[in-house]
Amino acid sequence: MRKLFIVMLLSALAISNAHAVSKSHRKAAEELLTVTGLKASMDRMITQMVKIQLQQKPMMAPYEDIMMSFFSKYLGYENIKHDFIDIYAEEFSEKELRELTVFYKSPIGKKTITKMPVLMNKGAQVGMSKVKLHINELRDMIQAEAKKNAAMNKLPETKK
């Protein structure tokens, strides 16, 4: 039994060490985040998120500062930086991270960084317009399914 425990413990340690990331790998991930402007992106995202919430719920306007403070506290760059470093280090090798950093430092890489929010926004608008054109079809499908479900849930009345 003791030998089994030792084998299991050593296996667990081997598995955890297989996923260990070197300091230089983490540093490469952090440099990529810096070059791509994650801090500024997160700041913009927080501001936009609060703005959207206030548009949807204007009665929250007196609490805008509290909301900004809360989201900055938990979604601000310093709080999420290490999580993003882990994600990037898990998904890219150290060499790939360094290559990406070189790309994003280049003129076309810098342009990509500035254009990405525009491209994502335009892409979202395309998706929204496609759905908007066919929203009645979705509504009809949902109504048909709801009727079908309602009919299946109806039990025949029994005579007493």
Overview of this structure, please?
- The protein is mainly alpha-helical and 160 residues long.
- It has helices at 2-18, 23-35, 38-56, 64-75, 77-91, 94-105, 107-133, 135-153.
- The chain has two domains: 22-105; 107-148, no CATH class.
- The chain has eight helices and no strands.
- The longest helix has 27 residues, at 107-133.
- The chain starts with a helix and ends in a 7-residue tail after the last helix.
Oligomer: single chain
Helical residue percent band: over 70%
CA(first)-CA(last) distance: 67 Å
Domain tally: 2
Task: List the keywords.
160 residues; mainly alpha; 8 helices
Topology (elements, then pairings):
Elements: H1 2-18, H2 23-35, H3 38-56, H4 64-75, H5 77-91, H6 94-105, H7 107-133, H8 135-153
Question: What is the structure about, briefly put?
Answer:
The chain has helices spanning 2-18, 23-35, 38-56, 64-75, 77-91, 94-105, 107-133, 135-153.
